[in-house]
Amino acid sequence: MNPVNYIYLAALLFTIGATGVLIRRNAIVVFMCVELMLNACNLSLVAFSRMHGNLDGQIIAFFTMVVAAAEVVVGLAIIVSLFRSRHSASVDDASLMKL
Amino acid sequence: MENLIALLIAAPLLGAAVLLCGGRRLDAVGHWIGTVLAAVSFVFGAILFVDLLGKDAEHRTLTQHLFSWIPVEGFQADVAFRLDQLSMTFVLLITGVGSLIHLYSVGYMEHDERRRRFFGYLNLFLAAMLLLVLADNYLLLYVGWEGVGLASYLLIGFWQHKPSAATAAKKAFLVNRVGDMGLSIAIMIMFTTFGTFAFGPLLGTHEEPGLVGETSEGTLTAIGLMLLLAACGKSAQVPLQSWLGDAMEGPTPVSALIHAATMVTAGVYLIVRSGAIFNAAPDAQLLVTIVGAVTLLFGAIVGCAKDDIKKALAGSTMSQIGYMVLAAGLGPIGYVFAIMHLVTHGFFKAGLFLGAGSVMHGMNDEVDMRKYGGLRKYMPVTFITFGLGYLAIIGFPGLSGFFSKDKIIEAAFAKGGTEGWILGGCALLGAAITAYYMTRVMVLTFFGEKRWQPDEHGHEPHPHESPSSMTIPMILLAFGSVFAGGLFSVGDRFLHWLEPITGHDHGDAPISAATVTASTVAVMVIGVTAAYLQYGRRPVPVVAPRGSLLTRAARRDLLQDDFNHVVLVRGGEHLTRSLVYIDHTLVDGVVNGTAASVGGLSGRLRKLQNGFARSYAVSMFGGAALLVAATLLMRAV
């Protein structure tokens, strides 16, 4: 199969993720969209790796997964504590950092 | 013997320090301390004079190096004194007349509770004036120059509870600053051009010209003009003359000592001392004569219109100093006569002022001559001494003023050419006006009917002769007014005394000396007769009549204050106002405009900071998209 199709898929996934980050208010969903964007990147890295015939992209994909796993731990912890303090997981409610 | 020079200055300086720092416990004796120290200074001066007379004419310059004031590489300012024939003449005049006026003030200021302070200031003045004439370089001269300005300021404003006196003091100080600026600029030019400002190396002697001889005429003209500006300020010459009339607000002994006999002649001293510079700068010299001629007529006209006896005398002082400046501007033809007139003027003008003070003393401080009249019966000594001073100043043959003024008029004609005729004509005209206004003063004060009336409190003045502490100085000064001129002129004594310092040149007179003398006497008689016909033959109105346009202008000092007000005060106001306007609109406009536009822009940018994470995300995505687009674009290009 033509590897370019994977790139298209990755672009589609990234766009879905980015759109979700921008339009959804629920912090969990936003978070999931961020993960989706990360994985779209991973997919494109693996696809490029395949296209160019070296393993660099695949190795970076592993690194990304490890970092994403760590980020999930921290991010979920933030969301949980946010929910505990405000009884809401809406990202728009947490808009105190403004003039 | 040289060491006496410093003591000459130290004596009055000590007096000033003791009297001004001593406090009230010296109130009882303060005036005598001041007088004795002034007299001590005179005695030192007399000893030095005798010593100088004992030497031959070429070796009469004594110098004393006291200490190095500012010893810096390439800049040497010394406190050093130089006593030669010129400064000796001044020393004797300053300390002699000064001591007499100290004595006079003992009586005149008797009822003033601040008499001790007054004597402190007088001593300070003496010290500063002596420093001025004894200094061996221009920088030290400048110290004395500023010192006499300070003393003059303090003494004009001595009765500072009167707003008019306080204002007059301020005016004198400010106008003098303009002149002082000229002197300081002259000193700066000297230093940058010659690297020194000591008289010896700078001015040289007749045999060997100093550094001045090796310099371009342009530089010397610049120095000369600045020195002339300084002289105009200190000596109340046009255009810086406006302060002298108001300076009469000071106590009368001050007017006699500072504003008639000594300080106001400092400008003449400066010009004569800097003779080497002026001789090499004919343009500056010509301007000096013009200033002198204009001022001698200006002062004389003002003197004719004033009803205030002191202000009439002040106009006369201005006019007589105009004669001296005119003579000093004639170069070697006139230097000696400028100084000779200065000395005789010191005697008779101080005498006249002391006489005026004596009249005021007896008339409850009334100064309006229209309210005097017939005082000769009440104050015989004042009348006789004042009368002798009067005869001296109008140039009555045989008295002091006759010899010195006649010589100046001769010298003005001897300048030669058209200039000589114009200057000589001005001087002759001035002599006629002098005779006119002095006769007017004399007649209004001492002759005619008594015109005084009770003042608003009902006190009628009881004219009386002043105490002997006041009449003795007047009598001594009257002796000077009568005999000094003859003493100086017989055998050309004064000429031979001063010639080694100033040089002398007979010029080429277009008319003989006898003709000049005859015309001087003739114009004097015309002036006296005119004034007698106008004031002596018919009753004098107590309230001044309206008078002609010229009279009214002359009463307002020929509009000098109006001129200064319109040109300088208004001009200055307009200048500052337009500068403020430019500052407000242009400078502030640029600064405030920049700040306002940056503020407005950031106010708009600030709205991006809204706290919504999603909006920040849009910015990030937008930025990333822009970066990608830019990268692609760059690659395509």
TrEMBL record, chain A:
<dbReference type="GO" id="GO:0005886">
    <property type="term" value="C:plasma membrane"/>
</dbReference>
<keyword id="KW-0813">Transport</keyword>
<keyword id="KW-1278">Translocase</keyword>
<comment type="function">
    <text>NDH-1 shuttles electrons from NADH, via FMN and iron-sulfur (Fe-S) centers, to quinones in the respiratory chain. The immediate electron acceptor for the enzyme in this species is believed to be a menaquinone. Couples the redox reaction to proton translocation (for every two electrons transferred, four hydrogen ions are translocated across the cytoplasmic membrane), and thus conserves the redox energy in a proton gradient.</text>
</comment>
<keyword id="KW-0520">NAD</keyword>
<keyword id="KW-1003">Cell membrane</keyword>
<feature type="transmembrane region" description="Helical">
    <location>
        <begin position="28"/>
        <end position="48"/>
    </location>
</feature>
<comment type="similarity">
    <text>Belongs to the complex I subunit 4L family.</text>
</comment>
<dbReference type="GO" id="GO:0050136">
    <property type="term" value="F:NADH dehydrogenase (quinone) (non-electrogenic) activity"/>
</dbReference>
<keyword id="KW-1133">Transmembrane helix</keyword>
<feature type="transmembrane region" description="Helical">
    <location>
        <begin position="60"/>
        <end position="83"/>
    </location>
</feature>
<dbReference type="GO" id="GO:0048038">
    <property type="term" value="F:quinone binding"/>
</dbReference>
<keyword id="KW-0812">Transmembrane</keyword>
<dbReference type="InterPro" id="IPR039428">
    <property type="entry name" value="NUOK/Mnh_C1-like"/>
</dbReference>
<feature type="transmembrane region" description="Helical">
    <location>
        <begin position="6"/>
        <end position="23"/>
    </location>
</feature>
<comment type="subunit">
    <text>NDH-1 is composed of 14 different subunits. Subunits NuoA, H, J, K, L, M, N constitute the membrane sector of the complex.</text>
</comment>
<dbReference type="Pfam" id="PF00420">
    <property type="entry name" value="Oxidored_q2"/>
</dbReference>
<keyword id="KW-0472">Membrane</keyword>
<keyword id="KW-0874">Quinone</keyword>
<dbReference type="InterPro" id="IPR001133">
    <property type="entry name" value="NADH_UbQ_OxRdtase_chain4L/K"/>
</dbReference>
<dbReference type="GO" id="GO:0042773">
    <property type="term" value="P:ATP synthesis coupled electron transport"/>
</dbReference>
<keyword id="KW-0560">Oxidoreductase</keyword>
TrEMBL record, chain B:
<feature type="transmembrane region" description="Helical">
    <location>
        <begin position="472"/>
        <end position="491"/>
    </location>
</feature>
<dbReference type="GO" id="GO:0015990">
    <property type="term" value="P:electron transport coupled proton transport"/>
</dbReference>
<feature type="transmembrane region" description="Helical">
    <location>
        <begin position="420"/>
        <end position="438"/>
    </location>
</feature>
<feature type="transmembrane region" description="Helical">
    <location>
        <begin position="284"/>
        <end position="305"/>
    </location>
</feature>
<dbReference type="GO" id="GO:0042773">
    <property type="term" value="P:ATP synthesis coupled electron transport"/>
</dbReference>
<feature type="domain" description="NADH-Ubiquinone oxidoreductase (complex I) chain 5 N-terminal">
    <location>
        <begin position="69"/>
        <end position="119"/>
    </location>
</feature>
<feature type="transmembrane region" description="Helical">
    <location>
        <begin position="89"/>
        <end position="106"/>
    </location>
</feature>
<feature type="transmembrane region" description="Helical">
    <location>
        <begin position="181"/>
        <end position="200"/>
    </location>
</feature>
<feature type="transmembrane region" description="Helical">
    <location>
        <begin position="118"/>
        <end position="135"/>
    </location>
</feature>
<keyword id="KW-0472">Membrane</keyword>
<dbReference type="Pfam" id="PF00361">
    <property type="entry name" value="Proton_antipo_M"/>
</dbReference>
<dbReference type="Pfam" id="PF00662">
    <property type="entry name" value="Proton_antipo_N"/>
</dbReference>
<dbReference type="InterPro" id="IPR001516">
    <property type="entry name" value="Proton_antipo_N"/>
</dbReference>
<dbReference type="InterPro" id="IPR001750">
    <property type="entry name" value="ND/Mrp_TM"/>
</dbReference>
<keyword id="KW-0812">Transmembrane</keyword>
<feature type="transmembrane region" description="Helical">
    <location>
        <begin position="378"/>
        <end position="400"/>
    </location>
</feature>
<dbReference type="GO" id="GO:0003954">
    <property type="term" value="F:NADH dehydrogenase activity"/>
</dbReference>
<feature type="transmembrane region" description="Helical">
    <location>
        <begin position="252"/>
        <end position="272"/>
    </location>
</feature>
<feature type="transmembrane region" description="Helical">
    <location>
        <begin position="616"/>
        <end position="634"/>
    </location>
</feature>
<feature type="domain" description="NADH:quinone oxidoreductase/Mrp antiporter transmembrane">
    <location>
        <begin position="135"/>
        <end position="426"/>
    </location>
</feature>
<keyword id="KW-1133">Transmembrane helix</keyword>
<dbReference type="InterPro" id="IPR003945">
    <property type="entry name" value="NU5C-like"/>
</dbReference>
